[in-house]
Amino acid sequence: MVDKKKKRPIDEFPWQEYDKEEFKEKYPHLAKELEEEPGLVIEGYRVEEEEEEELMDFSGYNPTVIDFIRRCETDEEALEIINWMEEHGEITPELAKELRIKLVKEGVRSFGTKKEWGWYERHRKR
């Protein structure tokens, strides 16, 4: 009588151990990637930022380009803001270039969490 080990659902989880050759046979592309020199090094990552609870006095406050970008939903909207502000002399061409590079490389959320309608009212000193 052959004693077959009954597979349990946990046996199918990806963290199970593999023989190196079995792994190469089952996942050849992944095995190749793991054996190669790292091509992309991740130096850091962003986590969801918590909004500051500190209340501010906004009397006389003039929003910056970053404030306007944080209102955008998409990278395209942010690019429109950058272009408009540069064309109207609100920001320098050098700053516009830096902002475009950051936008292309990291996306609109890299400028901060989205400022929804009423943000200033919720964060002002009363």
Describe it for me?
- By secondary structure, this protein is an all-alpha fold.
- It is 40% helix and 0% strand.
- The protein has six helices and no strands.
- α4 packs antiparallel against α5.
- It starts with 19 loop residues before the first helix and ends with a helix.
- The model has no long low-confidence stretch (mean pLDDT 77).
Strand tally is 0
SSE string, helix = H, strand = E? HHHHHH
Indicate the overall shape. elongated
- Determine the N-to-C terminus distance: 82 Å
Q: Low-confidence runs (pLDDT<50, min 5 residues)?
A: none
The assembly state of the depicted protein chains is single chain
- Taking all Cα atoms into account, the compactness measure Rg is 25 Å
Helix count equals: 6
Helix/strand/pairing category: mainly alpha
Mean pLDDT, rounded to whole units? 77
Q: Provide the β-strand percentage band.
A: under 5%
Secondary structure: helix percent:
40-55%
| Biggest sheet overview | none
What's a concise summary of this model?
The chain is 40% helix and 0% strand. By secondary structure, the protein is mostly helical.
Features:
mainly alpha; DUF2095; DUF2095 domain-containing protein; elongated; 126 residues; 6 helices
